[in-house]
Amino acid sequence: MIDDRLPLVRSALFLPASNARAIEKAQRLAADLVILDLEDAVPAELKEEARVAAVAAAATDWTPLLAIRVNAPDRPEHAKDLAALAGVPADVIVVPKVERADDLAVVRKALGRPLLAMIETPKGLYAARDIAAEPGVVGLIAGSNDLAAELRLPPRQGREGLALALQMILLAARAAGGIALDGVWNRLDDADGFAEDCAQGRALGFEAKTLIHPNQIETCNRLFGPDTAELEDAQALIAAATGGAERFRGRMIEAMHVAQAHRTIARAR
Ligand SMILES: CC(C)(COP(=O)(O)OP(=O)(O)OC[C@H]1O[C@@H](n2cnc3c(N)ncnc32)[C@H](O)[C@@H]1OP(=O)(O)O)[C@@H](O)C(=O)NCCC(=O)NCCSC(=O)C[C@H](O)C(=O)O
Ligand SMILES: [Mg+2]
């Protein structure tokens, strides 16, 4: 069962499930989705502790939607995660480094929750269309750190080298009718760079961005939600539209623009 709030998500905050303080804090934060990580944020010696903490956290009340990221399908920890999470009431399960749609069928059968698949490797990119179309998958997440490493991009550059990958992820998600979440911004002290990254992600079509720190939530929610002018324009467009091609505020509008305006209004909070 897919939560109605999922297509409206703007911000998705990762945190290591081994960090009890961060879990406690995240329950009260304004992120639309919180992702308790069992994968790369958790050192090997804390994997079991993180699983136990994630299961306990999922049994409590959350204001944001709650997701748990399991370890990658090709890792020995993956099967342990699936066993530990059986019956867990998380809203979503995030599966990293997906390269084959079949890997997701295994997770869906084991956990029966909606799935967000992370595309983080060249093989994953080429399989993204099948991955997004796999039953149970509600969308894709760009794993931009792993992608940059796999593509051997030079460190500390802009996102030019990721442009095609990001667009392939968005296209695959949309072809399957799913949502698409942009990758994280690592430079915690560069707020201007983060805002530019959010604006770029939204311009590419992503409806949300994955985050790593509470300080990123407010900017992300603001930049991925419609602003006042967009909202006013959408409302006026719907009120003015009578069907077919017509002139509205100096531009042509048709049925798809009315549908877009309804989506804008649905995303306004
Ligand atoms: C990146 C961090 C390790 C930085 O930690 P730190 O310097 O200790 O943070 P602060 O001192 O600034 O923290 C201030 C308070 O905020 C809480 N906090 C910090 N981060 C989070 C969070 N993510 N969620 C909830 N709360 C958080 C601290 O506990 C402090 O609270 P208080 O005690 O009240 O002062 C750290 O931010 C962090 O661990 N971030 C998440 C890292 C993570 O989950 N990584 C995995 C996903 S990223 C990724 O790999 C994506 C993808 O796979 C790819 O390939 O790109
Ligand atoms: Mg990754």
UniProtKB/TrEMBL annotation:
Question: Where does the record place a coiled coil?
Answer: none
Cofactor(s) the record lists: Mg(2+)
Q: What is its EC number?
A: 4.1.3.34
Concerning InterPro entries, the annotation shows: Aldolase/citrate-lyase_domain (IPR005000), Citrate_lyase_beta/mcl1/mcl2 (IPR011206), Pyrv/PenolPyrv_kinase-like_dom (IPR015813), Pyrv_kinase-like_dom_sf (IPR040442)
Please name the top-level EC class of this enzyme. Answer: lyase
Q: Which domain of life is it from?
A: Bacteria
Keywords recorded for this protein, A-Z: Lyase, Magnesium, Metal-binding
Listed SUPFAM superfamilies: Phosphoenolpyruvate/pyruvate domain
Q: Name one GO molecular function term.
A: citryl-CoA lyase activity
Give a single Pfam family match: HpcH_HpaI
| Residue stretches making up the HpcH/HpaI aldolase/citrate lyase domain | 10-214
Record-stated family: Belongs to the HpcH/HpaI aldolase family.
Q: What is this protein called?
A: Citrate lyase subunit beta/citryl-CoA lyase
